[in-house]
Amino acid sequence: MEMSLKALDYESLNENVKNCQYAVRGELYLRASELQKEGKKIIFTNVGNPHALGQKPLTFPRQVVALCQAPFLLDDPNIGMIFPADAIARAKHYLSLTSGGLGAYSDSRGLPGVRKEVAEFIERRDGYPSDPELIFLTDGASKGVMQILNCVIRSQKDGILVPVPQYPLYSATISLLGGTLVPYYLEESENWGLDVNNLRQSVAQARSQGITVRAMVIINPGNPTGQCLSEANLREILRFCCDERLVLLGDEVYQQNIYQDERPFISSKKVLMDMRAPISKEVQLISFHTVSKGYWGECGQRGGYFEMTNIPPRTVEEIYKVASIALSPNVSAQIFMGLMVSPPKPGDISHDQFVRESKGILESLRRRARMMTDGFNSCKNVVCNFTEGAMYSFPQIKLPSKAIEAAKQAGKVPDVFYCLKLLEATGISTVPGSGFGQKEGVFHLRTTILPAEEEMPEIMDSFKKFNDEFMSQYGD
Ligand SMILES: Cc1ncc(COP(=O)(O)O)c(CN[C@@H]2CONC2=O)c1O
Asked: Ligand 1 within 6 A of 290 CB?
C-alpha cells in the first residue's frame, strides 16, 4: 500500500502538518465564507484585520512607501504639489538604504538602516541600549515566532509553556515542529491574571512526564484575553524563567493597543534591565513586534521584528543562517516598520496629521472596547472582562445543559455550536473559545473590537437579541 501513495497524497503527508490546527481561520470562518458567497451579509469579526473592517491606513506611511515603490515620481517637477516634503525626504532616505530599490533583496536580517531605527525606538521606549545586530526584521511577527520556535524545539520531548487561552500561532507552530505545548492557565476571575504558582505546577507536571520545558511564551497585551501584564507580574515571570532556565518569548505586538490607564504597556526588556545583574544578564529574551496591529493595522504588508537579549553570538549566527534560506524579508514592509518606529516628529510637516489620525483611531478603539464589553455584560448568561489591551473581546458564554446536549447531538463542541447558531442568525463571524483553549466545561467566543464604531450598537443589539433568544430556547 505504501508504494502506491504519492508524496502529497493526504495519507502520506507529514503527520505534524495534519495534526496542527489554526482556529482563527477554522470551521466558523469557512462557514461564514460559504454564507457570504450565498449572499448573506457577514461581519467578519474573527480576524484582527483592521483595514478589512474599514479602518483607513495612516496617510504618511502610504505616501512614503508609494514614492519608494514608484521612484520615478520623485523626478516629476510637480511632485511637491502632491506629496509633503517630509514624505519625499523619507522616501529618498529609505531608497538610499536599499541595494537597488524595493525590488532588490535586502540582507536576510533586514536593512541595517531600518534595524538601526528599531534599536533607537527600543532605546527611547525602555531607556536601555539596543543593538541593531540583535534585531532581525521578519515577514510579520508570525515568521519571527516560527523561526525562534524552530530553534528551540528539538523533539516531542521539548515543551513550550504557553498561556491558555492562547493565540493559536503558538499551538499550531509547536505542533508543526513536533514539540509539546505545556499549558499554563490564565485566571479569568482575576481578569486573566497570571499566577506564577500555576507555572510551577505546569512545569512540574510536564517534567513528571519526561518533558524538558525549554521556553515560555507571554502575550502582552493578551490575545484573545486582552489583559495587560503588570510590572510586578513581569518581574515574577522573569525571575521564574531565570530560576527554571527558560527562554522567554515576549509577544508584544499589541503594545500600542492600550485602553486603560492603570496598567500601561511596559516591555519585558525594560523590566529585565530594571532588575539589574545577575538576572538582567542571565535571562534569554526574544521580543516580537509588528506593523499589523496598534493604530497601524497594516496586516497585509507583512512587517515585523524580533529583538534578541542575552543570546550567545553563535546562536545569533545560526538564526541568521536559517533566515538566509528565505533570502530577504519583504522590503516594503521593512520601510513600514521603519516608519512605525520613527514616525513624523513635532515640527515635521506631516506631524499634526499623523497625530490626529493615529490618536483618532486609538481613542475610537478604546470607546469600542468599552461598548463591546458593556454590550456583552448586558446579555443573559454572558460575562466579559474588559479589554484592557489588544483588539479582542472574549466573553464567557454560560451555556445551559440543554444547549450542551444539543451540541453533542449535532456532533459539535458546545461553543462551536453556539457560534454557528450566532453566525446563521446574525452574520456575526466569531471564533469559538475552544480554538484558543479554555478550562474544561467553560465556554467563550472571541470577537474583535474592530467593527466600525457607528455600527457597534447595532451589532451588539443583534448579538443580544440572538443570545437572549438562544438562552430562552435552551434554558434549564
Ligand atoms: C499575539 C499575536 N502575535 C502575532 C500575531 C501575528 O502578527 P503578524 O501579522 O505580524 O504576523 C498576531 C496576529 N493576530 C491574529 C491575526 O488576526 N487575528 C489574530 O488573532 C497575534 O495576535
From this structure: yes
Nearest CA to ligand 1 atom 17: 48
Where is 220: in which H helix or E strand?
Answer: none
437 conformational bin, left if phi > 0, alpha if psi -120 to 50, beta if neither? left
**Residue 453 is inside which H or E element, if any?**
none
Predicted model pTM = 0.96
Integer Cα distance of 156 and 147 in angstroms? 17
Looking at ligand 1, which residue's alpha carbon is closest to its atom 22? 223
pLDDT, tens only, 270-317: 999 999 999 999 999 999 999 999 999 999 999 999 999 999 999 999
Grid coordinates representing 249 are: 518569548
Measured from the Cα of 390, ligand 1's closest atom is: 22
List the residue whose alpha carbon is closest to atom 15 of ligand 1. Answer: 48
Condensed to tens digits (0 to 9), the pLDDT of residues 57-67 reads 999 999 999 99
The ipTM, to two decimals, is 0.99
Bridge partner residues of 182 (DSSP)? 161
Q: Which of 22, 136, 142 gets mutated to test ligand 1 (max ligand atoms within 8 A of its CB)?
A: 142
C-alpha to C-alpha distance for 380 and 400, rounded to whole angstroms: 11
Strand 180-185 and strand 158-164: pairing? Answer: parallel
